[in-house]
Amino acid sequence: MKRLLTFLSALCFSCFADAQVDTLMSWQEMDSLLTHYYFQGDIPKAWELAEMELAKAGQIYGEKHRNYLTSLNNNGSIQHILGEYKKARIFYEEALAGAKEILDEDDPLAVEIMLNLAAAYDNLGEVVPALALFESGIAKFRALHGEDDLTYAYHLNNFASLCTRMGQYQRAIPMFLRSLEILQGAVGAEWVFQALGNLFSCYSLTGQYEYAIRKSGEALALAEDAGLTGTPGYAILLYNVASLYHNLGEYQQALEIMDKSRSLMEGQVGEDLTEYCHWLNLYALLLAENGRTQESIHRFETAIKLAEGNLEAGHSLLASMKNNLALVLVSEKRYAEALEIQENALEILKNQKGAAYPEYIEILADMADLHEKMGGDSLSSAFHRQATGSVIDRIDNQFDHLSEQEQVALSQRPYNIADRLNKHQSFVVRHPEHPEAAASCFDALLIGKGIAFGNRKRLLNAVRKSEDPTVSKVYREWERTGLFLSAEYQKRVVERSPDFDSLEFRANVLESELARISQEFKEARQLVSWQDVQARLQADEAAIEFAHFRYYSRDGRTDSTLYFAYILRKDYNAPRLVYLFEERELEKSFEAVSENRKESLNNLYAFRGLIPEGAKMPSGEDFLRLVWLPFDSLLQGVRRVYLSPSGLLHRVNFAGLPFSKREMLAGRYELHVLGSTRQLVFRKEASAPPVNEALLFGGIRYDRDTTAESMVNEPDIDKGKLSATTVGIPFVTRSGATGFDYLEGTLQEVLAIRETLDEAGIKVELLEGKKGTEEAFRQIGKTAPSPRILHIATHGYFYSDPKSGEEGQSAIAGSDHPMIRSGLLLAGANPAWRGEPTPPGREDGILTAYEISQMDLSGTELVVLSACETGLGDIEGNEGVFGLQRAFKIAGAKYLIMSLWSIADEETAEFMATFYRQWLGGKSIHAAFRDTQQAMRAGYPEEPYLWAAFILVE
């Protein structure tokens, strides 16, 4: 079970206590006293008064009077808080029907009744009418009472709870936060505790586990301080924390937490309440996952019986319990029983919440697995395709409105999109005879692969073009928040500002708000299918979409990660799926590289005939056999290949792979490396850049003050007479503590490039020495279009494993943000790198990928990163590489040249000079890059290490 409980029900009812209270027990006095008892928590007295009040209202005013409707509403609220949702609904429905007859639709009482009925419907699982009433009622209530009203906070929390259950988390979180803000300091600890619990639940469901754990800790601490540890709310919070650990796969720990809440749930919540049924559902599931199968089945049967007796027949909780029971029965090979139960559960959810609801998708996937176990592969394929189609619908309806961070977290969260696609792809690998299943998977990849990156880039393009003042205002605040966070991410956690957490969340909210209000962003949204990609291919072209996934056998998840490729050509009826290898096979090659870097890289990009006899290291031929040869026979007659890497394949220079002793792969095919082959659908004819200018960085001084000693080390250079083959970037180590040395070859490199650019008529600006500052770099694109060419010759850094707290480790190396652990070093960076304070008003010289991603480089045709390991970064599922590559692409650069490993000096300068001559001589960037690689291979046939590091990414 994946659903978490929510705490708050309808907590508010009308109070018209403005009349004078005389010595008689008037209706008005009863109403005021009833309100007092209710908010003091004395529900028995409130209940007694509510019944008396309703009788008196009927006697004095009759049923067509506002006070009688108020009494109906009050009685509904009492029944609601007692968990008698059916009785509450009856009172509310009668009150709302009366309100429609005698009150205006915007009357405060009519609006309040509407919202209370919405909450009752929600508690009964009738989400469709609940959502409609909330949508209308919340807007009306806000218009009547404003956004600071205490009752508004309660209703807002109820609406957010429903949105959470509907999977509309991007709507729920801001409402929960606003509700909590109003409640804190205005009501007792119990209500704040419950609101914190609701927010925690929503964070858990979105996969934002760090936030979830933080909020659960706040709620638990508040409960202990306020003496709430014996309350039902405390038991529910324990349940929710156990559910979080269950989602993380920590089943034993989750069951231990559930046992702590057992006596509270059984003794105080009661077996007739929805909450207890939820608790039983998770408890039974955890029993099964801890090997106690028979106990689990008994608990499920008990829970289902309780639910059927106390909930509506179509309640989604009943569907969840039935599906979980079916899964336990499947583990016992009781397939026929399980299938019947699942079909019933699916029907319940379909009627209540629709095909895009997360639990509906899960049941479809579970039924697909069950049909395969029963030998019904065609039915299994159909259910897999239906489930994946629902995932695509959910992505289309939900992901655009989440921040980049939220999208990445949600796509990788257990029991969500990643696992769903993994199961589908596992089926496809086992059943290649079902091409329709492969086509469905390919469609999902086209949408889901790099979705957060694509949405972020599309959002930035839209808001920068927008003329809407509201959009501009939100964007400016988001930019300012991002600048603050950038500096904070570079600090150790213990050194960060007290405002860090709230501002980090504020940045996410602002990003989501931009997506919601930007009309340009909405209009740019377009789903892509494999047929759309195919329509852009010529007869001599092919698209290759690489994918990797955690394999699910028929019996469940395994520890194997498989790689495969979808091949698409103009005349195919469906994409062809080709299995490649298991991840461990490719890891062996990279492990060899780490042990003997230079020799191993030479071997990996060399044909076997060039490797000394008896060598045990993998060769380029071995590499090719893993990543390319399994599908090469499908490329007969192909001239141009568009390929999108996945996982570890981001670390492979496909163009440099040796196809034979005389031919690289780039010589056999014209290779275009894309983030996703869906880019083909949006490709446009190349247009002239806004400005034909180049900005070069090189010869940078990393110490803040140039000393006499450093001047001694600087060669006397005739800047007008440099050979382009003199020297490039030497290999340097990065300890993260001692700083970075001056690279004399970088100055010679950019001076030579300037000469070539001058000859081609391109205006050039060179920033060297102390001029190559972070301030100068971050001004690019602010007041004028970014330059056509941006060439940066400097130190680069990349740390894959954060180890904050390790002695001698820099704060950047230990940052918890992957876009901080990758970057470039500019003038004056050494003091900050060593942990010294940066002068006020100055940048620290450490240009992180995070900072680059916030820039506007949309006018730049080519970025060349002539530095070590600039192509590396953290690989996050289907989101690709989080590092400089992602940063420059988000910023808008068209093409990137970067490196996969530390590169040598003279050969780097030779590579760059050759490339610029080829390109500026009239060739396309792709052709110039390919011909440069071939020329370098011809010059250094036995040392690919010296040139194969460079990759071109579009």
**Radius of gyration over C-alpha positions, nearest whole angstrom:** 32 Å
Shape: globular
Helical residue percent band: 55-70%
Please give the order of strands in the largest beta sheet.
7-6-8-12-15-16
How large a portion of the residues is in β-strands, by DSSP E? 5-15%
Average pLDDT value?
77
Calculate the terminal CA-CA distance, rounded to whole Å: 42 Å
The tally of strands reads 16
Strand-pairing-aware structural class: alpha/beta
Describe the protein's topology:
Layout lengths: L26 H14 L2 H18 L5 H16 L3 H18 L5 H16 L3 H19 L4 H16 L3 H15 L5 H17 L3 H17 L6 H16 L3 H19 L4 H16 L3 H18 L5 H16 L3 H18 L5 H16 L3 H22 L5 H9 L4 H14 L4 H14 L2 H15 L3 H21 L10 H18 L1 H5 L6 H6 L5 E13 L2 E14 L6 E7 H13 L1 H8 L15 H8 L1 H4 L7 E5 L20 H4 L1 E4 L5 H4 L10 E8 L7 H6 L30 H16 L3 E7 L4 H5 L10 E5 L2 E3 L23 E4 L3 H5 L12 E3 H5 L8 E5 L6 E3 L5 E3 H8 L3 E5 L5 H16 L4 H15 L10 E4 L1
Parallel strand pairs: 1-4, 4-5, 6-7, 6-8, 8-12, 12-15
Antiparallel strand pairs: 1-2, 2-3, 9-10, 10-11, 13-14, 15-16
Helix pairs in contact: 1-2, 2-3, 3-4, 3-5, 4-5, 5-6, 5-7, 6-7, 7-8, 8-9, 9-10, 9-11, 10-11, 11-12, 11-13, 12-13, 13-14, 13-15, 14-15, 15-16, 15-17, 16-17, 17-18, 18-20, 18-21, 19-22, 20-21, 22-38, 23-24, 27-28, 34-39, 39-40
